[in-house]
Amino acid sequence: MSGSGESLGRRPARGVARSLAVGVLGLGLAGGGLHALLFPGPVGAATPVRVAAGSLRTGDVDRGRNIFEASGGCTCHTNFPGEGEDAPPLAGGRALETPFGIFYSSNITPDAETGIGSWSDADFIRAMREGLSPEGEHYFPVFPYPAFSGLRDQDLIDMKAYIDSLPAIRRQNRPPGAPFPFSWRATVAGWKWINFVPLELDEQPEHGAAWNRGRYLVHAAAHCGECHTPRTLTGGLDRSMWLAGSRDGPEGELAPNITPDGATGIGEWSVADLVWYLGTGLKPDGDDTQGLMSEVIEHGYSRLPESDLQAIAEYLRTIPAIENEVKGRD
Ligand code: HEC
Fold it and tell me: ∠ CA(76), CA(77), CA(79), 5° rounding?
């Protein structure tokens, strides 16, 4: 774990003003947390799971693999940066740096004690869609449940069946390395109260099946917006800048503007360029891809059927173009 410590140490000092601002913001969020705990709103701990009974099958491993791969292969749960290519798959422990501190991804292998092996389908659906553990505790929003909230019941049940078919690995979860109150799960109630709007992705019949599939994959499963959309001061997504690029991408990476803006986005890319990119990680100019994007491509998107990549590319051509030059900090 020395890697994460080093990268923390190398960060430039942020200054007293910024620390104060973050402190005040934290207290505000924590206050919101208390309020939300005392007066649970639509995402309070007691929310029943929205599972449509009746029409659901038991999980299908092959269909589940497709949704798992569409989600980028859940690679945030494998500690590649800390342990290299042999990192135990999906066993967690990966340090994810955010403006609010470091959070460690959890073990999502089917180990009954340290992973999610003892979870029911309903537990899994609630975690993915509402950001709540089986015990009703809030998950930190570094876990992109705002996107996953748009996933359908059957897709989640299938995804769980696929994860259950993978090797169980024993590894305890690590507590966050974030300062109080960001390390406090009740603060997340405040965060949800301000920022969390569950996704409702109804079919839009005026568009074709591929467009609708692409929209579902981009918004929900592939959670492109969680990295490519800039965030507000409280760490929510700035929806007016949907996919227009973020300098606070995962692990402090810069995530480019992927709206169809010609100058600052990917407006010059053809559908074929984007399909090629998601399948290989190679850009139209021959450049390759770094960081987490290369991981979600390698372990996820590149394994999708061509029709899914086409659907993603077709949908992305139709979203609003936003002019936004994303500049890094270096
Ligand atoms: C886990 C975070 C993450 C997710 C999820 C993610 N991206 Fe990215 N993406 C990045 C980062 C970081 C880069 C920059 C990579 C680099 O510098 O090589 C990037 C780069 C790209 C690029 C290259 C753009 C350019 O101008 O060079 C495209 C296109 C892209 N992503 C599309 C997508 C699409 C489409 C999705 C969803 C299907 C997606 N990304 C999901 C983080 C992410």
Answer: 85
pLDDT in tens, 218-243: 999 999 999 999 999 999 999 999 99
Residue that is written with structure tokens 């999708």 in the block:
304
Atom 33 of ligand 1: nearest residue by CA position: 224
Q: What is the DSSP letter of 208?
A: -
CA distances from 210 to 188, 201, 297, 304, 316 (A): 36, 14, 20, 14, 11
Ligand 1 pocket test: pick from 246, 261, 293, 315 the residue with the most ligand atoms within 8 Å of its Cβ: 293
Q: How far apart are CA 108 and CA 129, in angstroms?
A: 16
* CA atoms of 278 and 313, how far apart (whole Å): 9
Residue range 95-115, pLDDT digits in tens: 998 888 999 999 999 999 999
Q: Give residue 292 CA to ligand 1 midpoint distance, Å.
A: 8
Entry pTM: 0.89
How far, CA to CA in Å, does 186 sit from each of 267, 282, 295, 320?
Answer: 42, 42, 32, 36
Helices 209-216 + 306-316 axis angle, to 10 = 90
Give the dihedral sign, CA 105/257/200/212.
negative
